[in-house]
Amino acid sequence: MPSGKILVAQGGGPTAVINQSLVGVALEARRFRSVERVYGARHGVRGIINEDFDDLTQETSHNLELVANTPSSALGSTRDKPDAKYCHEIFEVLRAHEIEHFFYIGGNDSADTTRIVSLEAQRAGYPLRCIHIPKTIDNDLVGNDHTPGFPSAARFVAQAFAGANLDNASLPGVYVGVVMGRHAGFLTAASALGKKFPDDGPHLIYVPERTFAIEQFLHDVKQTYERFGRCVIAVSEGIHDASGAPMASLLAKDIERDEHGNLQLSGNGALADLLCEEIKSKLGIKRVRGDTFGYLQRSFIGCVSDVDQREAREVGEKAVQFAMWGRRDGSVAIRRTGFYSVDYELLALDDVAGKTRVMEDEFIAASGTDITDAFRLYLRPLLGSGMPDAFRLRPNPVPKVRNAAR
Amino acid sequence: MPSGKILVAQGGGPTAVINQSLVGVALEARRFRSVERVYGARHGVRGIINEDFDDLTQETSHNLELVANTPSSALGSTRDKPDAKYCHEIFEVLRAHEIEHFFYIGGNDSADTTRIVSLEAQRAGYPLRCIHIPKTIDNDLVGNDHTPGFPSAARFVAQAFAGANLDNASLPGVYVGVVMGRHAGFLTAASALGKKFPDDGPHLIYVPERTFAIEQFLHDVKQTYERFGRCVIAVSEGIHDASGAPMASLLAKDIERDEHGNLQLSGNGALADLLCEEIKSKLGIKRVRGDTFGYLQRSFIGCVSDVDQREAREVGEKAVQFAMWGRRDGSVAIRRTGFYSVDYELLALDDVAGKTRVMEDEFIAASGTDITDAFRLYLRPLLGSGMPDAFRLRPNPVPKVRNAAR
């Protein structure tokens, strides 16, 4: 009979729905007679070391529901990556509190943290059930149809490009929007879901799954600009040259890395500015504007997919069920079972942790600068209900009187 | 008896609700028996020169309503500033089409365009009724309580900072968000409406109404960071030093100006990047992130104030009424009559055109880095209904067992 206490924490970058998973764990756990307390660690695994726990059992269900609908990590987050020593400190604290269930909500790196903690617990003989709960706006967890957090971020990106396209049509020029995504282009590709009419932007989409060459880029932009009199471009922050070096890293003075070895690509506008400068100077186009979506795309309050909310809640609930009724550690994964429905399964931590999914070839058009209908069909149901829509005046041109010959 | 045709056009940067005003004109005009046709000029005054008119009378009311709810300028926009020669070309086209009513939806520069066209028409003896319809996200038109477009952009900025604050609380550091606003800090100040709890960001707000000094800025950031362990900062793109030189212009290689002489401040991330570099290098804070809200804040689809929508519709309707029942040219203005209600009046074009309103002193805190309750009370009703809200876990700390002494 395990102890009556369980622990939940959140790691990595926040999403719009990560608190749904937290609340899913908190509320589902209390339905098990064996669970007496649900503790939350503040700022991920670091909160365990610091013994910084909040007792979620003392929360009201009303406030938990309000928190579930609030973006970003309510418990705080961390990018700490534990080693064996760190893990032993973790176990000492868990032992002192008689905690034998650990739920970690996060992306690849948090899955890896869960794997390390699970492995070290076995080595140390500490009886700990470890379950990783998926979230990442990058959608780059292997074994998942998609990951909670991605649909809401994708919705933001699609809405942002729908608006940027309208803006660009009104005052024509070139617009470059830089979207998050280190290795996987899913979020950048979501920009295409903002298109409605055949001449709508984004006209060009650059993802990290294809090699980026500035000459080809300028050629593409020139051709598009000549055709439409304007050009809207979606670029992933992770685009890289043939050697694999990210374009963003060629620009940054000091390249910052986190503890998982990831380059810091977000949080500055250098990539958009570089691309705009190239377009201005090499193509001689005057009106060139660049936006870097930055943190807006993952934490904007008020742009969320209801499908994403429900699924993020469910992965939290299922994590508790897998832990309480199952016999092994693992990572909860989303499997698509219909158009549109999903089910959940528990994958081995080794099969998920530290691995990176990228966009499947069938999702990227042969041109390398567009996405396919397969991707549209894949993403559309995830965006949820009530997507705002753009409409145009229907053409009713007035016959010219004075300038009839022009 | 004037001709049966009226002309409407849109100028300057688009907003989320500028099409409400367009549709307000189109639908209201047809209620007048004297109006037979409502023409729209494509891309502002330039569309008149090009004789590029669309007959809005042939639109369905259903599609007009859908367009009204679509952000950005449905007719397209321009930054052209007409001179006497340009105006004479305008009158030739208008004469050929027997158009004697001109409605121009736009900000300061478009008000000035309307003033110039009105003046030149009088000089040329062309019988033209000219009405300027206000819109600008900058909220810098004199004589108006506020301008259509500002409330929706303000809502975007408030929501963006509400989310950025949550993100920053989750992974603490410094966050700099750069907001549009050349001379007026209204939109940057709107960031404060995203605050809920006393320790929420933005902790510091820099508007163009106060002189910006980098040393004082670094001092403010250091103090805030020491107090809260993090710091969220809202900065207007128009901040300038004591000489009046915009910080952004000190950075740009080629300074672009539009035809109205305005410096191009948006469309790159240079200002945010500069401020972040300063904080990193001078204060030694590691996690420093900058976002430039850019075009998202004025054209994001799906973030709109319903109050703004209704008022933008009304200024269009009132413009037609003033034109048909009045005897003079002018600029429609919003006057606040209660908490919360408004009425509309027609100001002389000379009293609005080319003038710039900035934030009243009573709206800016004595510190110069915060806003007052007077501003909160001013802005809150404009943001409309259904503002998303952020909630926190209530503190229920678990007593420490192992680290009790720490």
From TrEMBL, chains A, B:
The UniProt entry annotates the active site at: D138
Its EC top class is: transferase
Question: What function is annotated for this protein?
Answer: Catalyzes the phosphorylation of D-fructose 6-phosphate, the first committing step of glycolysis. Uses inorganic phosphate (PPi) as phosphoryl donor instead of ATP like common ATP-dependent phosphofructokinases (ATP-PFKs), which renders the reaction reversible, and can thus function both in glycolysis and gluconeogenesis. Consistently, PPi-PFK can replace the enzymes of both the forward (ATP-PFK) and reverse (fructose-bisphosphatase (FBPase)) reactions.
Listed under subunit, the entry gives: Homodimer.
Q: Where does diphosphate bind?
A: G13
* Chief location category: cytoplasm
**Organism's domain of life?**
Bacteria
Q: Which GO terms describe its biological process?
A: fructose 6-phosphate metabolic process
Q: Does the keyword Metal-binding apply?
A: yes
- This chain belongs to the protein called Pyrophosphate--fructose 6-phosphate 1-phosphotransferase
User: Any inhibitors or activators noted?
Assistant: Non-allosteric.
Specify the signal sequence span: none
Q: Where is the Phosphofructokinase domain?
A: 5-322
Q: Which cofactor does it need?
A: Mg(2+)
Q: Write down the position(s) of the site called Important for catalytic activity and substrate specificity.
A: D109
**GO MF terms held by the record:** 6-phosphofructokinase activity; diphosphate-fructose-6-phosphate 1-phosphotransferase activity; metal ion binding
Intracellular or extracellular location(s): Cytoplasm
Q: Where is this site: Important for catalytic activity?
A: K135
Q: May I have one GO cellular component term?
A: cytoplasm
EC number(s) reported in the record: 2.7.1.90
Q: Which positions does UniProt annotate for substrate binding?
A: T136, I137, D138, M180, G181, R182, E237, Y295, L296, Q297, R298
Q: Summarize where Mg(2+) binds, as residue positions.
A: N108
